[in-house]
Amino acid sequence: MKEFLLLFRGDFNAAPDTQSEEGKAITKKWMDWAGSIAAQNKLDSRGNRLKRTGKVVRGTGIVTDGPYSEIKETLGGYTLVRSINIEEALELAKGCPVLLVGGNVEIREIEPL
What is the pTM of this model? Predict the structure, then answer.
């Protein structure tokens, strides 16, 4: 089996607070989706959400704040899955809850060093 990184992008600034009823319902969808992948023995790491703030380091040594708040589509989290090929990883990604709110999933194969 190969390992794939699923990267979740979307407008996470518009997401409901995780403590609200709507936020809890969305969190349950994420947990159910990850659970369905785990039940197939294809979940390497459920991953994590990413904080909305951070820093960007450029090759020139310049450090800036980032990601930029004016960009609506930001990287919000990741999951690691195992699958035979990218097509199978794509099928796993099609159930991701980020797709229900206008986000997208980028699928990248992990290439061991």
Answer: 0.86
Instruction: Enumerate domains of the chain plus CATH numbers.
Output: 2-109 (3.30.70.1060)
Distances from the Cα of 39 to the Cαs of 6, 81, 82, 112, in angstroms? 18, 12, 12, 25
Q: What are the distances in angstroms from CA 96 to CA 7, 22, 56, 79, 113?
A: 11, 17, 28, 10, 28
CA pair distance 101, 40, nearest whole angstrom: 25
Q: Are 6 and 81 in contact (CB under 8 A)?
A: yes
Q: pLDDT by residue (tens digit) across 17-57? A: 778 898 899 889 999 999 999 999 999 999 998 887 888 88
Q: Write out pLDDT tens, residues 76-105.
A: 899 999 999 999 999 999 999 999 888 999
